[in-house]
Design goal:
By secondary structure, the chain is mostly helical. It is built from 4 helices and no strands.
Length: about 100
């Protein structure tokens, strides 16, 4: 069923399809674990890390969609750099070690 409405409606329709459920279940959950752990390593509280993790994922997905639709790599890259610059002064922001899930 296509309705041309918001992304919320699209997600609702996609979730109803059995073949899309496994993918949709991992699009946020798996990323949230890793990204939230990284934000905690940078000194955020667990609640703050989850909020910033969700914003990080949403911003990344939005800019990927923007790139797919506009093909404007320079502008989407600039937008991403601007977004992540807010985290530059956090402890460990420039560490190259990948995040691990806290025990």
């Amino acid at each position: 069923m296509r309705c041309g409405c918001s992304s919320k409606c699209t997600a609702t329709h996609s979730k109803a399809e059995p073949h899309t459920a496994p993918l949709l279940d991992t699009l946020v959950g798996d990323w949230m674990t890793t990204i939230s752990a990284r934000f905690e390593q940078m000194g955020m509280t667990p609640d703050g890390a989850r909020v910033h993790g969700r914003l990080y994922i949403a911003t990344l997905r939005g800019l990927m969609l923007d790139l797919l639709t506009t093909r404007d790599l320079a502008t989407t890259t600039a937008a991403w750099q601007h977004y992540i610059s807010q985290y530059e002064d956090l402890p460990g922001a420039h560490d190259s070690e990948p995040a691990t899930t806290p025990s």
